[in-house]
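Narrative summary of target 7.
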Amino acid sequence: MGILSGSQALREEDWNKEFWGNNPAAIEFLAATGLLSRPRKILEVGSGKGYMLRHLRDRGHDVCGVDMDPAAIAECGQDVTVHQSLATDLPFDDGSFDIVVSFDLFEHVPDSDRHLHEVRRVLKKDGYYLLQTPNKWTNIPFEALRCFRKCGILQTFDFLKPPDHCALHSYGQVRKRFRKNGFAVRFYDVPVVNDFFKQKLERFAGKFGLAMLKVINPDELPLALRTNFFVEARRLD
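Modeled conformation, tokenized:
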């Protein structure tokens, strides 16, 4: 293996994780919307190894996914349908889905407007895009520290390069971007501080990070200052 950039090293480190710490929060968010109380036709953009697709399929939904990484698609196996595709060029007809979902994907797409255009196109009228994405102002310092600790000072900000966190948004920027692209948005209050969160914080910020967590719990902050945004975006016509 050659020398990895900071962003490549972090992706390689994450690859073998079977269960992402954000999954419980994502599932709680989907339940809180009330939109999945009956069978729906759902597309997941950035489906990774297929965990969320299988979760939704097992609850009676008609699901398929897209991902740009052939290795991730291969990991999904044959029990779920995943197409190789960019998030800015979805291989589906107009109005194909009731709901589109994505988790930790939006911040990786360099052309946010093109992505939202495609999501809106494949949604039915009054369809919904349900997504989670990190807050720009909390994510930048954490990822900079993470990259610095893992890869050194010269690669501290490699995570801001495509295909990593090249499209981070603040609370206000999310509202503006979605409104511009024909969506009405609602933010949900979903806790993210769990054992995974604490382990990740301790790993990259040490005992000081855990001590600060006792002083400032992100789950108790106003929605605009949360570490992660959980967004319900309804297509407007």
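Residues 195-215 form the longest helix (21 residues).
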